[in-house]
Amino acid sequence: MNVALRGVAKTFNGKQAPLVALNPITLDVATGEFVCLIGPSGCGKSTLLRLIADQMAPTTGDVRLDDAPPGAARKAKHIAWMAQNPALLSWQTVLDNVRLPQRVNTAANRQNGQPARMATFAALDPTDLLRTVGLADFAQAYPGTLSGGMQQRAALARALATGAQLWLMDEPFAALDELTRETLADEVLRLWQTFRPTVLWVTHNIAEAARLADRVIVMSARPGTVKDIVAIVHPRPRDETAPETVAIIRRLRAVLRRDTEISTD
């Protein structure tokens, strides 16, 4: 699924005065591309994802997903969302949490008289999805008994169960320890290489962006807009200590520091 933004801006109504969150952004993301968004806190990265997900409307400009309004993709269940909070249902087992999107989507399609839409990887049995993310032995466990990293694995399996063509990832592993974060990010990368959805990934971790992305979109301080776009062409897997990756990390850090003193490590 391709993403096209044309002059997209967002202003919120504030108590004292309007708050300009995003200045106009024009951007294209190709089908199957892995794009990371970085920038200082409060620059509008999450707001931009919400505009793409049809969770809110832009103040000005136009968002298109496969040349259609984002509402069409949302209604067709083409969008998967992951954030820092895995938002698992505590009273449901891990397996039932993963099953939930397929149950809800199938019921909604039947109610609307539409055939169930199942992409290649959505057709996987939920048990197979849990095996894919390394949780096959915890299918009957409840979320409260799992570590934070395991809960995020379950959330990832649930995202896969939607069969979505577009993954919107809002710092999904930011609350985890460094080693778990790297392990899960590598798992997402492996799944992306297998299924090739389009991915937009928000992160504050420069090295993570350099390891994962085809392109890194660097945003300015609020009101956010695109400050620079850095393409990364050397092959994966990428070693953060390799000279070419170190050069990318240094370039990204230099771009971020041009107009902010906020730490971005």
Using only C-alpha atoms, the radius of gyration works out to 19 Å
Low-confidence stretches: 107-120
Helix-strand sequence: EEEHEHEHHHEHEHEEH
Task: Label the structural class.
Answer: alpha/beta
Oligomer: single chain
Distance between the termini: 31 Å
Strand order of the biggest β-sheet: 5-6-7-3-8-9
Q: Please give the share of residues in helix.
A: 25-40%
Residue-averaged pLDDT: 89
What best-fitting shape do the alpha-carbon axes yield?
A: globular
Number of strands: 9
How large is the share of residues in beta strands? Answer: 15-25%
Question: How many DSSP helices?
Answer: 8
Q: Outline the biggest β-sheet.
A: 6 strands, mixed
Short descriptors:
single chain, 265 residues, alpha/beta, six-stranded mixed beta sheet, three-stranded antiparallel beta sheet, 35% helix
Written account of the structure:
The structure is a single chain. The chain is α/β, with parallel strands linked by helices and about 260 residues long. Helix content is about 35%, strand content about 20%. It has 8 helices and 9 strands. The chain has helices at about 45-50, 70-75, 95-110, 125-130, 150-160, 180-195, 205-210, 245-255; strands at about 5-10, 20-30, 35-40, 60-65, 80-85, 165-170, 200, 215-220, 225-230. The strands form 2 sheets. It has a 6-stranded mixed sheet with strand order 5-6-7-3-8-9, with helices on both faces. A hairpin with a 6-residue loop joins strand 8 (about 215-220) and strand 9 (about 225-230). The chain is globular and about 50 Å long. It starts with a strand and ends in a 9-residue tail after the last helix. Mean pLDDT is about 90; it is low at about 105-120.
